[in-house]
Amino acid sequence: MGRWEPNAGQRLQAAGLELFEERGYEQTTVADIAAAAGLTERTFFRYFADKREVLFSGSSELRERMVAAVREAPEGSTPLEAVAAALDATAKVFAERHVHARRRQQVLAANPVLAEREAAKMSLMVGDLSAALRERGVVEPTATLTAEIGVLAFRTGFAQWLEEGGSLAEVFPRVLAQLRAAATA
Amino acid sequence: MGRWEPNAGQRLQAAGLELFEERGYEQTTVADIAAAAGLTERTFFRYFADKREVLFSGSSELRERMVAAVREAPEGSTPLEAVAAALDATAKVFAERHVHARRRQQVLAANPVLAEREAAKMSLMVGDLSAALRERGVVEPTATLTAEIGVLAFRTGFAQWLEEGGSLAEVFPRVLAQLRAAATA
Fold this sequence. Notes:
The structure is a homodimer. Chain A is mainly alpha-helical. Chain A has two domains: 8-54, Homeodomain-like (Arc Repressor Mutant, subunit A); 58-184, Tetracycline Repressor, domain 2. The first copy, chain A, is 74% helix and 0% strand. Chain A is built from nine helices and no strands. In chain A, helix 4 (58-72) packs parallel to helix 7 (112-135), helix 5 runs antiparallel to helix 9 and helix 7 (112-135) packs across helix 8. At the A-B interface, helix 7, helix 8 and helix 9 of A face helix 7, helix 8 and helix 9 of B.
């Protein structure tokens, strides 16, 4: 497995983001990222399946937190309340990450292939949340539709927060209320 | 511009879908599709920018119909009613296309790169619908959220229709009602 490298994953993420910003995503190779982090390509591939994953490795952890929050929502919560708890759980992850999240967003916006992967990750989020809701006894189509509404609130709220800053934990309830109003008007 | 070929676009679409099903999407080339349709590669590229577009060329026309329906919705319609009219307008397009839509869906499901493009097309649909709503005087964030709800209803209803058949025009109002219930529970 090669020698142990302290914080290798984080170093590769930081180096990757910086190179994507400076040179452009297409112009950056895995070898460039590894070299900038003072690591080998071999080490890179122990942490990431490909170049894109440098920007997406946090997303499965995020989904796990959301699923855990749905599972732990108080008995008797409505499906939408359980999903609101999942959104609130993500707010903590991003509390200190506004600058990083904006930099990442700019790289995504400049590269359609990355924006498409982001969209695909959102589909995984819908799948995970709806499965967690079904575990709680929520039936279809309510489970999937509530998960979809939750992910829509996540995307919308996250975009607002990227723009405006402030507290993500305050943004999500506001967006859910706006969505409710739009869906019933 | 080369000689005129009757229904060249449709012949290429039909040949492409058939080859994607038989050989697989990755294993099919533009040259294969053109040959199967009895046309040249040169003709192919007059109709489609790339191999993927064979499956997506209808999507911009679909968005245009939706935008037209939003524009033509009666004065005094709520944003959600205008979006419901856009969904209803798409139902007509697919009235005779259930078999084709299912075949296309199976090719998409087997190829992540195609599923990602489908998701990207849905983002374009959100953008077009929200712009059409803003033209009607709907303000943000209502315009975008209502467009998002509309596209969510479109995706969900379309998937149900692929599965169950029947009339898409009856599916959409039912899904919108389910969404309303999920968003307010």
